[in-house]
Specification:
about 375 residues; mainly beta; Jelly Rolls; 2 domains; nine-stranded antiparallel β-sheet; 4 helices; about 5% helix; globular
């Protein structure tokens, strides 16, 4: 099994950050639900929506108040926004995903009818509000599949459980949303529940993420360069000829769950600062001889994300690399990068594109490009 490789890279673009940059953000809510009566008390926490897993935000579930609902709201409703949040590309090169970074969900013992080891139950929903009235309903993100550290519930395929502390990702295969029913998306919700908890429990969440992943088409000469730098450590020679290491910082700080970045474990009694990831990783990934429709959005589309077919009155999401670059403002917004989505041991990094993407035409309708992808925090 390869320990490190660049195979078919996957780029995870957080749609929530893109909508926030455009001014669509309208606050967020944290709700503690007392089931089955569903009364609640409301609060607000901004840090969990900033894609910053260093954030240290603790929440406490009471034994009788066993569900937290985290909702990010958007102040505009349009068919374009609804499609961006609910239209799942039926493609092997793009799709929807969700995830939680920097959590410390821990295994539990058997309580009531719950099995030993089962952890927090996670559900993601899209709130859809009527454009003509105060009514709303929800669409559950269904047919989910594991990416890492997440086990779908075989009974519903709409939720799952997390068994280890660290971070979790999962694919979303469908959202049963109808944009023509007078309701348009205006919020995304994550639900965390622990039925029959029996006692108070405090847990940390660094950040939620929800958006679209992209896997550029294979190029026959895909090439890459990997580096790992400790820019906070400098070596200098003194006048007397001695060599000293001047340490300004050790690199990437631990996440809010107390673990080094991108660590997953069910062993909570070990000190992972010894040997934890600290250096800044970077990749230079080249794609050559890709057809123009794999790289660019259509120039004539007013909404670059979708192509509208007047005959079928259907919108088709553009799965090209251009859509990823648009969702991240040419890679200036942070995104999650996986250098080889087919690896047995998946590697992830929170990154930005640190070069100016450019595209060279090497043959008729064939283009090459190179991206410098640098870890950020």
């Amino acid at each position: 099994m390869a320990r490190r490789s660049i195979g078919k890279p996957r780029f995870y673009a957080d749609t929530l950050q893109y909508l926030k940059v455009l001014g669509y953000y309208d606050g967020n809510d944290v709700e503690t639900i007392y089931l089955p009566t569903s009364s609640s008390d409301l609060g607000s926490e901004n840090g969990i929506w900033n894609l910053d897993p260093i954030n240290n935000t603790n929440f406490t579930l009471n034994g009788t108040k066993y569900r937290h609902r985290y909702q990010i709201n958007f102040n505009k409703q349009s068919i374009n926004q609804d499609l961006l949040m609910t239209n799942v590309p039926q493609s092997d090169v793009s799709g929807l995903y969700a995830g939680i970074l920097g959590h410390d969900f821990k295994p539990r013992t058997a309580v009531g009818n719950n099995e030993a080891g089962a952890n927090n139950k996670i559900v993601v929903r899209i709130r859809r509000e009527s454009t003509s009235s105060a009514s709303y309903h929800y669409e559950v993100c269904g047919d989910i599949t594991k990416i890492v550290n997440f086990e779908p519930d075989e009974g519903t395929m709409q939720d799952g459980k997390i068994y280890k502390k660290g971070y979790s990702f999962w694919n979303i295969g469908e959202i049963t949303a109808d944009s023509d029913d007078g309701h348009l998306s205006n919020a995304v919700e994550f639900h965390v529940s622990r039925p029959n908890l029996g006692e108070d429990e405090t847990y940390n969440i660094g950040a939620f993420t929800f958006g679209r992943w992209f896997e550029p088409e294979f190029a026959f000469d895909l090439k890459g360069t990997i580096s790992n730098s400790y820019e906070g450590v400098n070596v200098q020679n003194t006048v007397g000829g001695s060599t000293l290491s001047n340490i300004k910082h050790l690199g990437q700080p631990n996440w809010g769950n107390g673990l080094p970045a991108w660590a997953i474990t069910d062993r909570i009694d070990e000190d992972y600062n010894l040997g934890g990831a600290k250096g800044r990783r970077s990749w230079k990934v080249g794609f050559s001889y890709l057809t123009d429709d794999k790289i660019f959005n259509k120039a004539g589309n007013p909404d670059k994300f979708f192509t509208y077919d007047e005959d079928t009155e259907q919108h088709t999401f553009d799965t090209s690399l251009g859509s990823f670059l648009k969702l991240t403002l040419n890679g200036k917004l942070p995104f999650i990068f996986c250098p080889d989505s087919s690896a047995d041991d998946l590697e992830f990094a929170l990154c930005r594109v640190t070069n100016q993407p450019s595209f060279s035409q090497v043959a008729n309708n064939l283009f090459s490009t190179s991206l410098t992808i640098t870890e950020t925090w």
